[in-house]
Amino acid sequence: MNKRFSFSGCMLIAGLLFIYVPMLILVIYSFNGSRLVTVWGGWSLKWYAGLLDNSQLMGAVGRSLEIALYTAIAATALGTLAAFVLTRIPRFRGRTLFGGLVTAPLVMPDVITGLSLLLLFVAMGQLIGWPAERGLLTIWIAHTTFCSSYVAVVVSARLRELDLSIEEAAMDLGARPWKVFFLITVPMIAPSLAAGGMMSFALSLDDLVLASFVSGPGATTLPMEVFSAVRLGVKPEINAVASLILLAVSLFTFLAWFFSQRAEERRRRAILQAMEEMVKEH
Description:
Number of strands: 0
Structural class: mainly alpha
Largest sheet: none
Helix content: over 70%
Low-confidence stretches: none
CATH class of the largest domain: Mainly Alpha
Distance between the termini: 48 Å
CATH topology of the largest domain: MetI-like fold
Radius of gyration: 24 Å
Order of helices and strands: HHHHHHHHHHH
Number of domains: 2
CATH architecture of the largest domain: Orthogonal Bundle
Mean pLDDT: 88
Number of helices: 11
């Protein structure tokens, strides 16, 4: 048992080092004073200050964040609706086909999805004149289509675990379905909604293939900008902006964990208080 635990522990540490050491190196080299990545020129903050003058890179960051935010909102809404259809309507004509269409983007290669959407947008532009050109809107539609599947899977798993008697009791007491949904169902599936939204935000911010197919002039996202720049050599500004994104993601993750822990503590205290009150009454 000790040998197995030791081997598993070593593999876990090796895996974590393989993931996080390159990130640490990237952050360190973002403070490199030399323009050459392979040459250390001392500690410097000039690349962070230079980001303010790099309008092209900062514009790509702003566009990526904007698209990721809109994608997270739209994908969460559409994925939740799809999850409700799959879990709360067990029998309807075409359910198998609908379930397959919802989960197809999960296993479909990004190249096929991107090419299909490109052909769709071109055909729609020729037939109805919309979209007139490819840009932020087409990227948002592509990302929403892709990310909705992940939200549907996450929310469906949560909906299958819910106790329907709570919702049925609320409707028996006279609550309308929409009120039951917003006051009872949504709070119970809130963690899955948050997880799906954050996953959609991260996938949209990270996407390169889909955006390359459906983007147009003036709609370059951050992954596209980084990819085009890396082919000519890694620039120190890219290390700096990547470090800032890592810092923002780490801070957001810590805050989400902190507030979720506080909410869990309040819930446990409420349960203990309710149990103590029941004991006192009996």
